[in-house]
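Let's do one together. I've listed all components of the complex below, 538 residues spread over two lines.
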Amino acid sequence: MLQVNNVTVVYGGVTAVMDVSFKVKDAEVMGLIGPNGAGKTTLMRVITGTVKPVQGTVFLESTPLEGKPPHKRIRLGIGLSQQIVHPFKSMTVLENVAFVAGHGKTGHPVMSVFRHSRAKEKQKAMEILHVLGIDKVAEAKPENLPLGYLKRLEVARAIALEPKILLLDEPLAGLNQLEARQLADKLLELNQLGHTILLIEHNLGEVIRICDQLVVIDNGMKIGQGEPHKVMDDAVVRSAYLGEGHHAAS
Amino acid sequence: MQYEISLLTIMGISIIAALSLNLIVGFCGQISLGHAAFLGVGAYTSAMLTKAGVPFTAAVAASMLMAGIIGTVVGFTSLRVREDFLAITTMGVGFLFLGIVRKQDFLGGEMGIAMIPDPGLGKVGYLVLVLLLAATLALFSIYLKRSWMGFTFDAVADDEDTANLVGIDVSSYKLIAFAMGTAFAGLAGALYAHNIKFIDPESFGFVESITILSMVVIGGTGSVWGVTIAAGVLSIFPMWFQFIDDYKLLVYGGLLCMIMLFSPDGLSGIFGRFLNTIRGKNFNASGQ
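Okay, and this is what the predicted structure of the assembly comes out as:
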């Protein structure tokens, strides 16, 4: 489904990502984890096209994404949920999702002026909000909602694009334990409905619970890949998460 | 009666100018402080063409086209700069227009262009034409707001980066907003030129740009009816009451300050909150 090949990113002389490669298979939940500053979000941005790598390629199915601007990559089948929530503030929750659900009507800017009906998109948006359990706040403005709802709204918008793969950047960040578990369950449900997911997340408990595969990066380099429990038992990975002292003590 | 007809014609032209800026600022969220320059482009194009014997309707169409093309070029700057920087850039475009026109003899230089041909519709006929065009633009604005293009403009105005990350070709939408807004400004300029029959660079200076922006802000950015009412009232009041005209900048400045302090969403916001109080519902100032 998604293939990241030998990606290197340099910011002003500092190497943020170094020669990282991995593949996400169809209908898989792949976790991309690592300590703060490891380069996870940078990798996500390379995939969406907001950061240009100095080396490496990204393929969505068999389509190379190189040289394509972010909006074209998204329309090829990438649904992105950002780490910091960015709802459209002038719209209600329902309108936020319906707007994205109407991606077929906004693809050609000139033709969009001849299209009016929003009924189908609103119905579809309502269904997505229902799946994520936030249909009760459909008519609310985002500014009036707590973070847990806004995180779900981000995911709902990403789903509304009908993407081939969902890129979720820390969807559980800032949520309490119960909210995080509920949203993780929803992600699992989405996966069972056939969605392929690449998940960046710090909540290791939930990551291990819902992911099929993990890729671990530290200081911009890949240090592990495989099934969650095996990867988390790896000494190098544990050292990266718990510090050098852990390795020595154990 | 002639005076009232003249006032209403000016009002109609002001409504077209304000609604044209509303497409850029109110709908798409792109600030512009040099909008009068596009009225100027339209006015000069139509004046020159009609003086050369081109029929009025063809000249007006050419004015819209010329202003729209130059507006699209200026729109490209909105792809590189945003907010404060875009405001300064568009202000620069306004000064650039004045600088160029003042130094061109074939455009009349500082003296401007006089004896611009009459469209031959008579005073009342011209008034009817202007009001019909103003009403058409208002209806088009409402239509646009309810279309998926308007929906997308809302998203771009809210957050360009996020719009891009949900698959929106933000650059194209911004250019379309600039093209449409400046083309209609060209129309307003052409109508102005054939109404007054004299134009000079000062008619399209920075103060005029701020005057049009004031109409949009006071009416409520993005609100079609709010901007229409504000443009109508603010354009004829200074002419109706001479003492207001003497202190026009002071009145406009004071109104702008008051609106920014007490109701940043303008008259439409005030009306919306009033309705909200009555109905107990949320109100969307865009009219949706």
